[in-house]
Write a structure and sequence with these properties.
Order of helices and strands: HEEEHEEH
Distance between the termini: 39 Å
Number of strands: 5
Helix content: 25-40%
Mean pLDDT: 77
Strand order of the largest sheet: 3-5-4
Shape: globular
Length: 112
């Protein structure tokens, strides 16, 4: 736990001096606070998302998911990322993590 706290503090210091990222729509964001929820496999992820959906949405074809929102006044984004545990560098689940983090930066506009 202590190592995690040190890492978070170190990353916060780096992020405070970071350059803003420009999204496809021209908006910029300087910080993204991200929480990851990892699952053992995609079917476990799909089951969790479907069971916890407030809208009754069926997530049976979802490979990864993120719920993100922005505080435009403070130029900060918040993102909850749901993904199967990555098992290899540049594997499909690792790529999904990066994709979902970019939604934290640019929201739905990341696809445009």
């Amino acid at each position: 736990m202590r190592k995690l706290l040190i890492l978070i503090c170190a990353l916060s210091t780096v992020a405070a001096n970071a350059e803003p990222v420009e999204c496809p729509d021209g908006e910029t964001i300087t910080s993204v606070l991200t929480v990851f929820k990892f699952f053992n496999n995609v079917s476990e992820l799909q089951r969790y998302l479907t069971e916890h959906s407030e809208t009754g949405q069926d997530f049976s074809d979802t490979e990864a998911y993120s719920f993100c929102w922005r505080d435009k006044e403070n130029n900060v984004a918040y993102c909850d990322v749901f993904v199967a545990k990555p098992t290899m560098v540049d594997g499909p689940h690792t790529m999904s993590v990066g994709h979902e983090v970019m939604h934290g930066v640019c929201g739905d506009r990341y696809h445009k």
